[in-house]
Amino acid sequence: MARRTKIYEGKAKVLYEGPEPGTLVQYFKDDATAFNAEKRDVIEGKGVLNNFLSELFMNGLNGIGVPTHFIRRLNMREQLIRAVDIIPLEVVVRNVAAGSLSKRLGIEEGTPLPRPIIEFYYKDDALGDPLVTEDQILAFNWASHQDLDDMVALAVRVNDFLSGVMLAVGIKLVDFKIEIGRQFEGDMQRLIVADEISPDSCRLWDIKTGQKLDKDVFRRDLGSLTDAYSEVARRLGVMPKSPVPIKPKLMN
Q1: What average pLDDT does range 77-85 have in this prediction?
Q2: Cα(83)–Cα(194) distance, rounded to whole angstroms?
Q3: For residue 39, what are the contacts with CB-CB under 8 A and spacing of at least 6?
Q4: Torsions phi, psi of 167, nearest 5?
Q5: Per-residue DSSP letters for 107-172?
Q6: Quick one: 6-83+224-236 is in which CATH superfamily?
């Protein structure tokens, strides 16, 4: 197997140089982290499940006119994606009170919100990805007024799409985060959804039982993370034939 040029390695994914200019190969790892990587483990098969689920969601968004970095899935663990300049912000959309929102505001977890709430977090692991305001974003030039408008518009459309997809299979979309990148075409830029959309980046609860089907299973020691993600994949009809393959060696 030919050696590949590694561009970046994060907590859950590795990016390699793509086969064509303007492309990258995104590899999904089995690593699971929580609490700013203070809790770590390797969950066999997690990367495969997230690859298939992210493919489904990104393809669906592309199909309704929401631009994403996704081009195609290459194999069980890899996707071909467009190279973008990631805006250093996580965009979080909340439909139900949970996690840090419940802790910050003292709202009981599971309380439906009167409207979706959109929050921005500055991407910096050393700082714990702090919540930031739009004024701070503008002051430090992380994004422009137009960028913010476009990011909110993308987040709303992603929320509408994901909420409908999940509702159809008996899952409540509690909240999720997305990352957004700038894609340049000559002197023009457009913002597109990047990174991944998977149970790693969403809170998903069974509508009837409230069972958690997301990374909170790992955070809170609620059982098997692979079983939870497999249930989401099964309901959505994208369960891979071999969900827990032997972990291949990364080519650096």
Answers
A1: 97
A2: 9
A3: 33, 218, 219
A4: -60, -35
A5: PPTTPEEEEEEEEEEE--GGGT--EE-HHHHHHTTSS-HHHHHHHHHHHHHHHHHHHHHHHTTTEE
A6: Phosphorylase Kinase; domain 1 (3.30.200.20)
What span, in angstroms and rounded, lies between the C-alpha atoms of 200 and 26?
A: 15
Q: Which two tokens stand for residue 169?
A: 């299979």
Nearest alpha carbon to residue 26 among 34, 18, 35: 18
CB atoms within 10 A of CB 211: 15
Q: Where are the alpha helices (DSSP H) in 15-105?
A: 46-63, 99-105
pLDDT at 252 over 50: no
How many C-alpha atoms does 207 have within 13 Å on its Cβ side?
A: 11
Mean pLDDT on 50-58: 98
CB of 211 within 8 A of CB of 29?
no
- The pTM assigned to this predicted structure is 0.92
List the structure tokens of 153: 């518009």
Q: Which long-range contacts (CB under 8 A, 24 or more apart) does 236-241 make?
A: 236/53, 236/56, 236/165, 236/169, 238/52, 238/53, 238/55, 238/56, 239/52, 240/48, 240/49, 240/52, 240/76
The CATH superfamily of 85-206 is: ATP-grasp fold, B domain (3.30.470.20)
Helices 46-63 and 145-167 cross at an angle (nearest 10°) of 110
Question: Considering only CA atoms, which of 241, 237, 92, 93 is closest in space to residue 165?
Answer: 237
- As a whole number of angstroms, the longest Cα–Cα distance in the chain is 53
